[in-house]
Amino acid sequence: MASLLGEQLFEISRQGPPPPKDFFQLVNTKNEVILRSWRISLQLNCRGAPPKELRTSHLEFLHHKVLQQQIGTVFGQRILEYTISLCQGKFDYLERLPDNLMLCIMSYLKLKETTLLAQVSHRFRKLCNSEKFWEHTVRNRCAGFTSDMEGIANAMGWRKTFFTFFNTKQTTVKKEDG
Q1: What are the sequence ranges of the domains in the chain?
Q2: Coiled coil located at which positions (predicted)?
């Protein structure tokens, strides 16, 4: 599983809270947390100022309450908690799987379960609503799908095809409960 981890575990960028217009970037690598900030100002003495960069090891970050507070203020409590969990070695391997492998795993879920999965994260919502997911669903789960319908599905979208032709009260989905 460790091979799924690249050098960079997480990255996010955002404009800080007002009144300043400063811009921030948070990078969490295997070994350290890096917070970069760019001063955005109309004042002449701030123009051309280089970005500030603070690098700290995971262990140091876990004890650096001021830095944690700054990250919580800029990026929110959820991002702070995720950064802390990464520093503690708690990796979310499922989130790191490639899309094609996730789609393969999702093919074993019931459609009701995929609606729940879509609520877990932005990535899962994107995958559950992707054309690839719906194409696989129509091709492999819908009785009555023929190769003649492929052109229609490509033109109008696989998700729309599913809900237009196959999602009826008399279920035509192959062994959904299986």
Answers
A1: 8-94, 97-170
A2: none
What is the CATH number assigned to the segment(s) 97-170?
1.20.1280
Amino acid at the residue 70: Q
pTM, full prediction:
0.59
Which phi-psi region, left, alpha or beta, contains residue 103 (left: φ > 0; alpha: ψ -120 to 50)?
A: alpha
Dmax over CA atoms of the chain, in Å, equals 71
127 within 8 A of 100, measured Cβ to Cβ: no
Sign of the CA dihedral running 141, 117, 129, 7 = negative
Q: How far apart are CA 3 and CA 151, in angstroms?
A: 40
Cβ 138 vs Cβ 158: under 8 Å: yes
Query: Would you give per-residue pLDDT tens digits along the chain (178 residues)?
Result: 455 566 888 899 999 888 888 999 999 999 999 999 998 877 777 777 788 999 999 999 999 999 999 999 999 999 999 999 999 998 777 777 888 899 989 988 998 999 999 998 888 999 999 999 999 999 888 888 888 889 989 999 999 998 888 886 544 445 444 4
